[in-house]
Write a structure and sequence with these properties.
Layout: E1 15-19, E2 26-27, E3 30-31, H1 35-38, H2 41-49, E4 53-57, H3 77-84, E5 89-91, H4 96-104, E6 111-114, H5 121-124, H6 128-135, E7 140-143, H7 154-158, E8 165-167, H8 169-183, E9 189-193, H9 202-208, E10 214-217, H10 219-228, H11 243-256, E11 259-261, E12 265-269, E13 278-282, E14 291-295, H12 297-309, E15 312-316, H13 329-343, E16 348-352, H14 354-363, E17 371-373, H15 377-383, H16 389-392
Helix pairs in contact: 10-11, 12-13, 13-14
């Protein structure tokens, strides 16, 4: 779809409302991971270079339309100031007199952070009055919060219809990466889908088998598919009630010419703990009292071979219980292979989802992938083929 960019907008001397996602982890009143804050810096700097006054709109936590002091965005100010290298002003509300007064006092080059948009019930209800109150503060709207754009809220969707609107640099990068991976990819395409449950990723699997040549299934999901084929998975996590659904997905994939890859060997253990005694077995030889906690080395070799045949990789979910050793081996080895191919210019690799990002960070390859999305739910819904309201409103 077509959307406007910062380069398409006139911003000199104007108040530019920028929706960002700085919903960052905080402990003891301090931001513990400023990644999301650091990622908005290019957008803020570009707007300043064009003479705009930057007003940041954001949510923090889930206050459910009430003022919750512990969920004030004020806690992010030190991290914002460190990332931007300048003082950041703060308004005690995102609409009304406090917001208007703070905006009126701004000078060119200033950055102002407004209080948590979710302190108002109208935000999540996408209330037209809330959207109008936000829009009244500025002349241009920039959405740089792809990760919040799967929600039709006043600050992500409603406001975009009321002001000249465009995508910020982070949103632009996200959309370009996802369109390159799913809408017009270099073929063949391989998708890696892992995680615990098939039931949470039915829409994703249904969309992918229409669009990719290879589908690698890992994690607890793979156990469900193995069980659906009559293979004993012992005491493993598996959704046995999803067997019929799993078989239907495999059949549909076959009809569409999408080759599904399940583990050919497995890593099993009797207990789920760090350093637990484990063994590698053929996929159909899981003991009754054991749990499948990772894919084995032969499976990794097979996956690496598939990566080598393909030109585009989409990755969502780990191949095993990556949080603890030794059950992180398959995910780490496959991630390193994808990184190697990407560095060599042989693969376009796009990954996203909380566990996926954590697994790639643990493997030390995040920077080697073409694009790693921190968007979570929005990334997943895009991969499922759904329309994201905050993105559609920019078109």
């Amino acid at each position: 779809m077509a959307w406007k960019r910062i380069d398409d907008m006139e911003m000199d001397g104007k108040v530019v409302l920028v929706r960002v996602d700085i919903n960052v982890p905080v402990e003891a009143g301090r931001v513990t991971d400023a990644t999301r804050i650091e990622r908005i810096v290019p957008t803020v700097k570009d707007i300043q270079a064009r003479g705009g006054k930057v007003v940041l709109l954001a949510h923090f936590g889930r206050p459910k339309g009430e003022v919750v002091p512990e969920m004030s965005l004020r806690v992010t100010l030190p991290a914002l100031e460190a990332a931007l290298g300048q003082k950041v002003l703060f308004a005690e509300d995102c609409i009304g007199a406090p917001a208007k007064k703070a905006v009126a006092a701004m000078q060119k080059g200033d950055v102002l952070l407004l209080e948590n948009t979710r302190f108002h019930p109208g935000e999540e209800k996408n209330d037209p009055q809330m959207a109008a109150a936000l829009a009244a503060l500025g002349s241009v709207y920039v959405n740089d919060a792809f990760s919040a754009s799967h929600r039709a809220h006043a600050s992500t969707e409603g406001i975009a219809h009321l002001l000249p609107s465009c995508a910020g640099r982070l949103m632009e990068a996200e959309l370009k990466a996802l369109e390159a991976a799913l809408l017009d990819p270099e073929r063949p395409v391989v998708a890696v889908v892992g995680g615990a449950k098939v039931s949470t990723k039915l829409d994703l699997l249904g969309n992918l088998i229409e669009k990719v040549e290879h589908l690698v299934i890992g994690g607890g999901m793979a156990n469900t598919f193995l069980a659906a084929q009559g293979i004993n998975v012992g005491a493993s996590l598996a959704e046995h009630d999803m067997a019929e659904t799993a078989r239907a997905i495999l059949a549909k994939a076959g009809e569409r010419g999408c080759e599904v890859h399940l583990p050919v060997d497995i890593v099993v253990a009797r207990e789920f703990r760090e350093g637990a005694a484990s063994e590698i077995l053929p996929a159909d030889k899981c003991p009754d009292d054991a749990m499948i906690l990772d894919a084995g080395p032969a499976s990794v070799e097979q996956i690496a071979g598939v990566f080598g045949q393909c030109r585009t990789l989409i990755w969502n979910g780990p191949l095993g219980a990556f949080e603890i050793a030794p059950f992180d081996a398959a995910t780490t080895a496959a991630a390193k292979k994808a990184a190697e191919l990407t560095r060599a210019g042989l693969l376009v690799s796009v990954a996203g989802g909380g566990d996926t990002v954590a697994a790639l960070n643990k493997a030390g390859v995040t920077d080697d992938f073409t694009y790693v999305s921190t968007a979570g739910g929005a990334f997943l819904e895009w991969m499922e083929g759904k329309t994201l309201p905050g993105v559609a409103a920019l078109g």
